[in-house]
Structure formats: structure tokens, C-alpha cells
Fold this sequence. Notes:
mainly alpha
Amino acid sequence: MRTDIFRRAIPWARLMLSRSGVIDDLNVSRAERRRAGLAGLLALTTFGAFAGIAPPGAALLLLVAVFAANLKLLSLFVRRGGVAFAIAAMLFHQVYYC
């Protein structure tokens, strides 16, 4: 985790900030930014649902949106490890986005 943050994330963020405009490449494409936003909303809504301040249906709706936004990756996970693996991998992938 330390290596990923200090050797990859921070230098990559510094590089992006040193350029003008928004970079639309690799893991910072518009689609990836939308997926990361969905993951963040899912996390907030899930915590809110457990705290009783957000409706559980909203978290479920966001979960469906997350799966739909990552359909290609989800289908790869299903082919490689089955449905249970795919669900677990997709949930873990949301941690990556957050």
C-alpha cells in the first residue's frame, strides 16, 4: 500500500497537476472518473444506510449502477471465477476506486 501511494499515486498526481487541462488517458479517462464517482457515492450511501440517514434502496440502486458501469470487467470476472467471485471482485474493485 505504501509503495502504491508514494511510488505511483503521488508521482502520477504531481505529473497530472503539472500539465494544463484535464488528462483523458488510461485510468483517468472520463469513464474511469465516472466509475470512481459511482464508487464514492456507493460508499457514502452504504454508510448512510447503515447509519439510518440514507435509504437502503439508494445504496442498492447505486450498486446496480456500479455493476452496469463495469459490465465488461464484471463479465470477465464471471467467466474466470463464476458469479460469487465476480460479485466479490466487483465489490473489492470499488475499494480500489475509493
